[in-house]
Amino acid sequence: MTAAAVGAGTPHADGPDWLGAMFAARSVAIVGASDNPIKLSGRPIAYLKRFGYAGRIFPVNPGRAQVQGLDAYPDLASIGEVPDLVMLMVDAASTPDAVRECGRLGVPVVIASAAGFAETGEEGARLQEDLRQAAQETGIRVLGPNCLGLMGMAAHLPITFTSALDEGDSLPVGSTALISQSGAFGTFLFSAARMAGVEFSHYANTGNEVDLDVVEILSALCERPEVTTLSAYFEGLSDGRRLAELGRKALLADKPLIVAKAGRSTDGARAVSSHTASLAGSDEVFKDICEQYGVVAVESINDIVDMMVMFDQGRRLAGRRLTILTMSGGAAALMTDVANANGIAVNEWEPEWRERMAATIPSFGSTANPIDLTAELIRDPEILRGALQVAIDHPGTDVACVLVGNAQTGSEQLIEIIAAASARSAKPVVVVWTGNNRRQLDALAAHRIARFDDPARAARALGALARHGEHRARLVGSDVPAPELAGRRLPEWLAEAAAQGLEHLDELRAGQLLSAWDVPVVQGMAVSDEDSAWAAARQVGLPCVAKLLSAHVAHKSDVGGVLLGLSTQAEVRDAFTRLWALGEQLAIPDGRVMVQPMLDTGPGDVELIVGAHRDLSFGPVVTIGLGGVLVEVLEDSVTLLPPFGREEARRALSRLRGASLLGDFRGRGERDVDAVLDLLVGFSRAAVDLRDDVVEMELNPVVVHAAGQGVLALDALVRLAPT
Amino acid sequence: MTAAAVGAGTPHADGPDWLGAMFAARSVAIVGASDNPIKLSGRPIAYLKRFGYAGRIFPVNPGRAQVQGLDAYPDLASIGEVPDLVMLMVDAASTPDAVRECGRLGVPVVIASAAGFAETGEEGARLQEDLRQAAQETGIRVLGPNCLGLMGMAAHLPITFTSALDEGDSLPVGSTALISQSGAFGTFLFSAARMAGVEFSHYANTGNEVDLDVVEILSALCERPEVTTLSAYFEGLSDGRRLAELGRKALLADKPLIVAKAGRSTDGARAVSSHTASLAGSDEVFKDICEQYGVVAVESINDIVDMMVMFDQGRRLAGRRLTILTMSGGAAALMTDVANANGIAVNEWEPEWRERMAATIPSFGSTANPIDLTAELIRDPEILRGALQVAIDHPGTDVACVLVGNAQTGSEQLIEIIAAASARSAKPVVVVWTGNNRRQLDALAAHRIARFDDPARAARALGALARHGEHRARLVGSDVPAPELAGRRLPEWLAEAAAQGLEHLDELRAGQLLSAWDVPVVQGMAVSDEDSAWAAARQVGLPCVAKLLSAHVAHKSDVGGVLLGLSTQAEVRDAFTRLWALGEQLAIPDGRVMVQPMLDTGPGDVELIVGAHRDLSFGPVVTIGLGGVLVEVLEDSVTLLPPFGREEARRALSRLRGASLLGDFRGRGERDVDAVLDLLVGFSRAAVDLRDDVVEMELNPVVVHAAGQGVLALDALVRLAPT
User: Fold this and answer.
1) What is the average pLDDT value for chain A, to the nearest integer?
2) Which residues pair with A702 in a beta bridge?
3) How far apart are CA A155 and CA B379, in angstroms?
4) How high is the ipTM of this complex?
5) Nearest residue on chain A to B234, judged by CA atoms?
6) Do A333 and B235 lie within an 8 Å CB cutoff?
7) Which of A404, A522, B311, B336 qualifies as a FRET site for B455, CA 20 to 30 Å off?
């Protein structure tokens, strides 16, 4: 029996074969199962029984004939059939060979639960490498090691020893998948979400990820029709580009991907030459690329649960217009503030619709929006029935929110009214029930209506729902390319330069290199004597600039290697002499002088800084910043995963805090944004094509002229990969 | 019997007399009390009985001999004694005369509950004015109208019809006071906080605030020893300066003041001449002045509850160093991220302390901080006992946080360990219990230990606790003046200018005016013919600047009224002619020309913008922004309530996002911050002294030279108050 054969027989027609064997296993074996249902190694069988797993359970325990009332087997081979899924509850040292035994038998998926691998030091790391080899040799898909197991809800399959299942005896089947690298934290998230009424389809803890990781499992689950929301927690991210691919895939499938990641700002010590690379810390890169691919990045347990609740109601927003029906003007005012801050409008209603609303609410209420139903609602919950229907019918309402609190008497009636109105509507209906509200929130969860205990949390979750729709609209049929790495085209001399052991290209070569991707860098002429310097100056035009040209000086102006505004023959000749002497003084082997035109930058011209560097997770990334002081003082920059298209580049520019400088700032006309987009798209392709050969490159500054006048990089830095 | 006499007899020796009559009334009358305990007008008596009020209750109801089992009276006069507190549950129209009747009897405090006053329109506004007069005539302190009443916990006095008391039969006595302008929202906050285990000392709803308002009640409660935390919700703020005074008083008493305010960004339509006034929207002003006076401004129900929970544990932070003891590395990493973002450090421990910790925790845990106790903690809760003691003993730990989740088995033991350790410590001990946690959070509340369900929320609350301590340290014995408005000293010609109906002062006069407060504005000479223009130019030095000088042109450069860099006699004469012609063309009655020196601004000079305007709530406020593009593109500004001292001004500068420009930016040496502080302090006094005469003034730009070189405002705008 092979893995493929097992997969073909599982009920999981969508997604890879291993997925069905994991989450919908028809039979499971637990190696090292304890008879004691309280012990960690006893819990999986206790849970499988308690939560009603209908498949076959094979305890493997050479010391016992029975385990928790089930016939036990001395080893896997004795079972007489090949289980879909094997959970190994043996110690770390025994785990690799246990996987090899599973391989001999043809088991498709193994959960390696033991701790004591790479997380404990060198010896553990060796064991983990052995386990990796065992997985590769056998072709078995391995979850773990150092993991608590998984739950497949539809199959009533909690094959785990998580303490989250300490209590209760049913696992409702929902449509949210949660895959967590961390065991304990995944358990916390699972329980917190369950407390908020979220129902899951799949749960897994990936632990040390010797084989299956969070991204691969979610990517497979994204293809399953019963999964509508994907969520993840991880600490490290070995290949961020795969997360971006998953984000794109999930967005195209209209399945939100909610991601919490801990361990920000950890690699600030990275040594970098370029300014953009130091600006874009790994956390900023992560957030910006999540934004690029529509991944919902969150940073608290409440946030992740709120997003799950909001997305789990299933409906999407057609626009950003919220109508609030409230029994407290104060709570509604607060919600309006936070909604506005999240880009959600609470527009005043049109007179004719205010009249229709007025017919349903108390005379001393307000129909402006927020619509104040007043505390009268407690005495007469029926007020809500008419008002909510009018709100849903109102064409200028994309989402209606009922905002109440306490209201113990009458709460059943209010919830019935909300549920009935929501059932008749295609628009989302959201409820904020503040104060004393546990019973009410649970009842709303049963109706799968998005519910919150705080208007601010609801407003933030609505913002995420709106952004999801907009990301999707942007991605579908737009120029957002898949984050793929295509073939390269490189000039031969680049390999020669690398072979010479150079760390940087000189400025002339850097500009030549980037021009191959249509990135406009100011041209110059390299000269080696005074006469040719003056000849070059006449050719480029006066006044001109002379610079020290060398692959060994990355920051020329820091050493006095840039002389500006040379207007006469004497000045040019003098500049040459000084720069040549500087080169000799610095003992630079390749020291030459470059003559460039002195470029007119108008008073309205804007300076950009554009760079690429290798992020530890994502590989090559492109960072864009605006203006000298703006980027330095305020660290105003945005990072994108290359390659990207013009619309992506345009969005990135608009996200800069100083974006208005590219527009008609102070009435001086718009800057040439089209030319900026061309430059950025070319630079992004260069970053991809050069990913193996160049570790950093930077254009600083890029001068952006008035619309139609183009852009030009005045300096280019290219740092080569060590050979 | 007079109010004073009543007050003297109450148990409230601290605070004004009315306070005792309100929250510790020995007897209460309810006018219009219903026999039906479910009806709004029946609820106060039902609640008083249910929650064990021990004072005398007098129902006033001419239609019944008994109300809810108590002897009823046909009117207040028939009672035979003067109650401390009367709640009027009569309609709006009857309320003013009912207050007058209370006045004749000598009742000190009345709750006017009826709605139908200013919130309903003109007729209601007239009734409210009548009620205000009744309060003034009688000297009675009135709470309301349009209010749900109040609760004094120590007296078991819930004299209210809020639905928050629908359920339960005990009101625990805590030390947090909550005063809310809004009835419904106050109720939501109260219930949400009670659900989180917060115990209150006082609660009141002030409604339309015809007499007593949120600030006055909290100011009185601030003097009560049993109150340790003050909290408020309001929508409008009629006199923000009183809130600042309360903030200062509360901070000096070490009683945090937590404030939620709704209705931000409402008056963006206000017409203003100066740039700073348009920058400082009312919400920014509110937030900045809260920051100035240490008021904890929050914007969600969760936030206000979290702050109450954090402050209610009673202890303060000696520093910002957090040690986390966790059973989940992931949750701790997430908490570390949010803690860092809130200025709380999670420092790695010293080797010798790591060794001490290692002796108490599992060998595969981590002692670095966050200290990982591992999931082993579920099996052996005793691990926490030793570890928590070491953390508390560790001198580099200002606060210890225990971060756990689920752990149903063993939770009682964990909580006992935490409570015991906390009881032995003077440092705060904070608990984050995530996942399934209702029982555990309730148990921790009983021990008055700060507890949260989300590491991010705990981290934010810790940030607020740290800031409170730092605000207090800053205020005590510093130069932060009380926000008092002292006497004025004004030149006589200012009144003359106002009498002429001028809207603005001309630039020369504006500079002269501000020089009275030692604000350095560039001097100039007013001239009316070419010859004197040239004479003035020679006097100020060449090159010079010529400007159109008029009280009627606020923005000279917009009309071409500023000519720079005049170097020759011809240029000066020509400039005079052009400006004079411009004045005639604009038909300005007072058009003259001003000649000023052309000032050298070095390449490292920084420009500030400094303005004052009248905020709707706070009156005169001073706004400071940095740099031309920085302030315009990024709206980088900070607002302070004047007068303020040098340290306040220094803090404000440091809060600008572009603050580093004033330091040794790009190695060009520090700017003259001392001179900036002098200018700001003088300007703040001017803003106070001129508050009745000037509605706006602005210095733009203020050039800040290198350290020791001073500052100089290059233009001054002063807009006069209409006479």
Assistant:
1) 90
2) A608, A713
3) 29
4) 0.88
5) A330
6) yes
7) A404
Q: CA nearest A621: which of A298, A291, A297?
A: A291
For residue range A273-305, list pLDDT tens digits in order. 455 555 556 788 899 999 999 999 998 999 999
Cα–Cα distance for residue pair A96/A633, rounded to 1 Å: 53
Distance CA B606, CA B601 (A): 9
- Name the token pair of B526: 């007013």
d(CA B657, CA B37): 57
Distance (Å) of CA B557 to CA A665, B549, B650: 17, 11, 31
Tokens of A519: 């990135």
CA distances from residue A138 to A79, A100, A103, B260 in whole angstroms, order as listed: 20, 7, 5, 61
Query: How many residues are recorded in chain B?
Result: 723
- Contact indicator for A206, A150 with CB cutoff of 8 Å: no
Q: Closest CB to A337: pick one of B262, B330, B375.
A: B262
List the alpha helices (DSSP H) in A57-121. 95-105
Q: Which of A262, A455, A658 sits opposite B301 (nearest CB)?
A: A455
Average pLDDT over residues A374-393: 92
- Hunting for tokens 């919490």 — which residue is that? A260
Take residue A95 and report the two structure tokens written for it.
């785990």
For residue A581, the surrounding DSSP H or E stretch is: helix A569-585
SS3 B332: helix
SS3 category, B151: strand
Which amino acid type is present at position A311? Answer: F
Q: Does residue A113 carry a pLDDT above 80?
A: yes
Residue B200's DSSP bridge partners are B176
Q: How far apart are CA B483 and CA A386, in angstroms?
A: 50
Instruction: Please tell me which of the candidates A192, A406, A661 has its beta carbon nearest to residue B435.
Output: A192
Of the residues B36, B327, B334, the best mutation for testing chain A's interface (the one with the most A CB atoms within 10 Å of its CB) is: B334
Q: What is the dihedral of CA B156, B158, B159, B164, to 10 degrees?
A: 180
Helix H or strand E encompassing B539: helix B530-540
The percent helix, strand, coil of chain B (3-state, each to 5) is 40, 20, 40
Nearest CB to A633; choose among B407, B436, B661: B661
User: How many angstroms separate the CA of residue A99 from the nearest CA in chain B?
Assistant: 24
Decide: B507 and B329 in contact? Cβ < 8 Å: no
Cα–Cα distance measured from residue A142 to residue A18, given in angstroms and rounded to the nearest whole number: 10
Residue of B nearest to A659 (CA): B633
B101, containing H or E segment:
helix B95-105
Residues of A with Cβ-Cβ distance to B302 under 8 angstroms: 302, 453-454, 456-457
Q: Cα dist. A381→A179, A279, A509, B116, B597 in Å?
A: 41, 55, 76, 22, 74
Chain B CA closest to residue A457: B300
Q: What is the pTM of this model?
A: 0.90
> Phi, psi at residue A268, to the nearest 5°?
-65, -15
The minimum CA-CA distance between B216 and chain A, rounded to whole Å, is 20
Distance from the Cα of B660 to chain A's closest Cα (Å) equals 7
Please report the sign of the dihedral spanned by the C-alpha atoms of residue B227, residue B231, residue B236, residue B241. positive
Please list the alpha-helical segments (H only) found in B406-491.
411-424, 438-446, 455-475
CA-closest candidate to residue A602, choices A676, A480, A707, A461: A707
Secondary structure of chain A: what % helix, strand, coil (to 5)? 40, 20, 40
Report pLDDT digits (tens) over B619-655: 999 999 987 666 777 778 899 999 999 999 999 999 9
**Cis amide prior to A620 (ω within 30 degrees):** no
Q: What pLDDT score does A86 carry?
A: 98
Please judge whether A454 and B300 are an interchain contact, meaning their C-beta atoms are less than 8 angstroms apart. Answer: yes
Distance CA A55, CA A72 (A): 16
Residue A627 contacts residue A658 (beta carbons within 8 Å): yes
Work out the minimum CA distance from A120 to partner chain B, whole angstroms. Answer: 7
The shortest C-alpha distance from A359 to chain B (Å) reads 17
